[in-house]
């Protein structure tokens, strides 16, 4: 009997597909990090996903910690979510008109996210749309232009947010992408994550000009970096003091680090919240919402324009609504966190056993392992990791059936479908890979 194939590295078929892909799609991928540029090698192509597992085009079965970059908190292809989408599809894919389901969806979201209780929410189709719309709204509401964001913070690919991370003491933005006019980021002020003094200084230097702070309350796009105690409270205070809108970008943390997101977990209520990923249950959905007096500025109620042909389309709403309903009914967050802690403790223990410098971070079912010693509180710290070692770790874990995000600067995601066997398989693989890395 042959044992199941778990070598997830690109085989013949994935390599052939990737070669084809590169002819017709830039870099062969429809989102850059999928290309494996940071870890080398070629990406395996995915044929199927169920529960906590992915099946590649080469026939390997892998334990998945990418979870489609966050949405798959119930695991892949959850039967109830799939059924809801199929049912919705039979009734029509999109009407571009109001539906009963989107009202139910909006009410459920507003009931779960503390900053939206008694407020309003607008559905869009991606996290990027949510953040750029929330910022337009904050600017329209305050009549101010400048925004504050963190180095290493990711809020989608709108021009004003593509500012070179880690540009040190720079307070004025520099385009982080070709094609972004300098003027588009002139009003973006950069601060390091977890540094309240820097935010205070930014407010002083731009008195009465800051429309909003946009922040991931738990950073997830420099790897997982938790907020220091008091940091979010301090941001709330500074925004109140200076009349700026506090925007939590909970595209990644929403419904993940707690049912009510990071704002529920830490008890700090922003003015506006951006959602994505889990809110769509695997379909393209984003949302922004919060304080009623601010949301009343959105068209057609107010002067801030924002629209979308497919916004609130029935398939996305069905997937999102069903996902949120299951999360609300099953309340899995405590168990998810405990299981993630078991995984993280196991990884740290095995790293230590083999003398590998490793700093683990975790908030609920979101985690990272940085290849460095010492604490990680911001992008500078994260960048101090041994990226070559991470690349080898990634390749060798993949060879042993564990699919991790192909970058040190991404978080791992645990789901309700990850069982003890999946965790054990991961830890066994990690033990072998750490041993390999220790040999140099
Ligand atoms: C993924 C992500 C986005 C962008 O969402 P898209 O749906 O990819 O446009 C924005 N903010 C955060 C915090 C994210 O993790």
From TrEMBL:
- Please give the biological process terms from Gene Ontology that the record holds: protoporphyrinogen IX biosynthetic process
InterPro entries, sorted:
4pyrrol_synth_GluAld_NH2Trfase (IPR004639), Aminotrans_3 (IPR005814), Aminotrans_3_PPA_site (IPR049704), PyrdxlP-dep_Trfase (IPR015424), PyrdxlP-dep_Trfase_major (IPR015421), PyrdxlP-dep_Trfase_small (IPR015422)
Q: Tell me the keywords, alphabetical order.
A: Aminotransferase, Cytoplasm, Isomerase, Porphyrin biosynthesis, Pyridoxal phosphate, Transferase
Protein source organism: Plesiocystis pacifica SIR-1
- What does the record give as the reaction this protein catalyses? (S)-4-amino-5-oxopentanoate = 5-aminolevulinate
Q: Which cofactor does it need?
A: pyridoxal 5'-phosphate
Modification sites for N6-(pyridoxal phosphate)lysine: 277
What's the top EC group for this one? Answer: isomerase
Record-level GO cellular component terms: cytoplasm
User: Which pathway features in its UniProt record?
Assistant: Porphyrin-containing compound metabolism; protoporphyrin-IX biosynthesis; 5-aminolevulinate from L-glutamyl-tRNA(Glu): step 2/2
Query: Which EC number(s) does UniProt give?
Result: 5.4.3.8
CDD domains in the record: OAT_like
Protein family membership: Belongs to the class-III pyridoxal-phosphate-dependent aminotransferase family. HemL subfamily.
Keyword Ligase included in the entry's annotation: no
Q: Does the keyword Cytoplasm apply?
A: yes
In its UniProt entry, what is this protein called?
Glutamate-1-semialdehyde 2,1-aminomutase
Under the subunit heading, UniProt states: Homodimer.
Instruction: Name the gene that codes for it.
Output: hemL
């Amino acid at each position: 009997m042959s044992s199941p194939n778990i070598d997830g590295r690109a085989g013949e078929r994935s390599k052939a597909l990737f070669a084809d892909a590169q002819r017709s799609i830039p870099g062969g991928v429809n989102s850059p990090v999928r290309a494996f540029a940071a870890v080398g090698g070629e990406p395996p192509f995915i044929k199927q996903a169920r529960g906590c597992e992915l099946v590649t085009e080469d026939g390997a079965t892998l334990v998945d910690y990418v979870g489609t970059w966050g949405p798959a908190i119930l695991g892949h292809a959850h039967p109830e979510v799939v059924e809801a989408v199929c049912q919705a599809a039979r009734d029509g894919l999109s009407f571009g008109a109001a539906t009963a389901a989107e009202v139910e969806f909006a009410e459920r979201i507003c009931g779960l996210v503390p900053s939206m209780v008694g407020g309003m929410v607008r559905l869009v189709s991606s996290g990027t749309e949510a953040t750029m719309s929330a910022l337009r709204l904050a600017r329209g509401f305050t009549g101010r232009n400048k925004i504050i964001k963190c180095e290493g913070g990711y809020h989608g690919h709108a021009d004003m947010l593509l500012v070179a991370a880690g540009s040190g003491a720079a307070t004025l933005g520099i385009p982080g992408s070709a094609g972004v006019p300098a003027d588009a980021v002139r009003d973006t002020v950069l601060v390091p994550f977890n540094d309240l003094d820097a935010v205070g200084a930014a407010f002083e230097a731009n008195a009465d000009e800051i429309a909003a702070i946009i922040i991931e309350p738990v950073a997830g796009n420099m790897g997982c970096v938790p907020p220091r105690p008091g940091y979010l409270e301090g941001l709330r205070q500074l925004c109140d003091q200076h009349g700026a809108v506090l925007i939590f970008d909970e595209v990644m943390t929403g419904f993940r680090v707690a049912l009510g997101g990071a704002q529920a977990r830490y008890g700090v209520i922003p003015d506006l919240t951006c959602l994505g990923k889990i809110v769509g249950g695997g379909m393209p959905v984003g949302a922004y919402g919060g304080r009623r007096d601010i949301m009343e500025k959105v068209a057609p109620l107010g002067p801030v324009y924002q629209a979308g042909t497919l916004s609130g389309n029935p398939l996305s709403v069905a997937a999102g609504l069903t996902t949120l309903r299951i999360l609300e009914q099953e309340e899995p967050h405590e168990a998810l966190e405990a299981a993630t802690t078991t995984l993280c403790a196991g990884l740290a223990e095995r790293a230590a056993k083999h003398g590998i410098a490793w700093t683990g971070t975790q908030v609920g079912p979101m985690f990272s392992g940085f290849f460095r010693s010492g604490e990680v509180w911001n992008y500078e710290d994260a960048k101090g990791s041994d990226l070559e070692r991470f690349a080898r770790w990634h390749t060798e874990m993949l060879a042993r059936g564990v699919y991790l995000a192909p970058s040190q600067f991404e978080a791992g995601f645990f789901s309700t479908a990850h069982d003890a066997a999946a965790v054990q398989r991961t830890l066994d693989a990690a033990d072998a890979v750490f041993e390999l890395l220790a040999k140099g």
